[in-house]
Amino acid sequence: MSYDTITATVSIASNAGSSLTNSATVSGGGASNSPTATDPTTILAATTTAAANQSAGYSTGDQTVGLTATVSSGGAVNSGTVTFAVFNGGTQIGSSVTSGTVTSGSASANYTLPGGTGAGTYTIEATYNPGPAYVGSSDSSHTLTVNAVRPTISWTPVPTIIFGDAGTSVLNAGASCGACGSFTYSATPTGGGSAIDISAGTATLAAGSYNVTANFTPGSANYAANSAQATLVVSGESVWILNSGAGGTSELAGNGAGIASSADGGANAAVAIDHAGNVWSVGAGPVLEETSQVETVQNTINSGGGLDAPAGIAIDGNGQVWVTNGNNTVSLFSNAGAPISASGGIMDSSVLATPTGIAVDLGGSVWIANAGSNSVTRILGAAAPTAPLSTAAANNTTGAKP
Q: I need a labelling partner for 311 at 20 to 30 A (CA). Which of 89, 241, 295, 300 fits?
């Protein structure tokens, strides 16, 4: 007697238990009864674990990270798929993605974070969608860490400035993320010492070498702090040049780099630097002008004290300003620009003849060169003693006896 073979394909629900019994009943064909056969089937329960291939850096645009899962049931699984979802707290972000067929117990898919996803820690949920004879499972105990971006800093501070000037030429850092935070600046002496906050650009830095730092503070948790360093030399020495034709003065640092210029009224004739580092110049107009070494005009004096066609200038140890005038007089002003000499100036027609150059020596005597008579006049002890220019520049002590 021969028998026919009957094959039946059945589907198993994902919530099926650990075992099922398949039953088959045959009827018809003239049989007097309907024979029934049963076959118990064991359902294999699969387990799922998930992970992110990498931590993703924050970006304001979309970004893709690789997600992987392993599926096992006492051995490698070679059927079904895995669906991945990412949650922030209890809220899903973005759309779910489904892998290809699980092969050798492994599945993977690329997940695109929504644009603007912030830095933080997110939960990955991987759900196994079972193949035949397997029961699905979910796992959500793994995390995806999205790191904050650490912006790069663009910074080109000038290598040399004059003391007292932090200024925009030093405080010019920018972050690659744009307006995503703020900057502060500090300067630390290279020989050691405390950091000096120069963020406002007004802190006085004495002559010397500094390590200057631009510190970036992020404006949100999506960015990380960063800093950049540079070396800055603060020069205590500079050279001032008079521009007699067009008027104005120009300043060069000790390394020869141009630093500052100031436009004075009329053609300049002479220049001097006081104990505070401010620049005094005289020129046609008449004008006596005081300018800081960062180009801020402190005083502009057009009259008083006998000022008339000034030609020469000197600063004594008390910061007083001595000026020779083309009308055969000498004018004296306080360091604040107030006239000390009388309205006609200091006059002595017997010795002053078109005075031009003027200087104050270590003993406080004032020396005047007379172009009109080819002579030199000395006013004994009339001024406060001052150091010679070369000594003062070397010691940064202009106006003080070394």
A: 295
Residue among 209, 212, 131, 130 at smallest CA distance from 167: 212
What is the residue whose two structure tokens read 């998930």? Answer: 50
CA pair distance 310, 321, nearest whole angstrom: 12
Provide the CA 391 distance to its chain's centre, in angstroms.
39
DSSP conformation class of 394: H
Indicate the CATH number of 238-395 among 2.130.10.10, 3.40.190.10, 3.90.550.10, 3.40.50.300: 2.130.10.10
82 and 126 Cβ atoms separated by less than 8 Å? yes
For residue 2, the model assigns a pLDDT of 61
Q: What is the DSSP letter of 302?
A: -
Bridge pairing between strands 196-197 and 181-189: antiparallel
Average pLDDT by stretches of 10, the chain with 402 residues: 65 57 67 66 81 68 85 90 94 95 94 85 93 87 87 87 68 90 93 88 74 94 91 75 63 56 63 84 82 76 90 92 93 93 88 91 89 89 70 46 36
Q: Characterise 162 by phi-psi region: left (phi > 0), alpha (psi -120 to 50), beta (else).
A: beta
* Domain at 45-147, CATH from 3.40.50.150, 2.60.40.1930, 1.10.10.10, 3.30.70.20: 2.60.40.1930
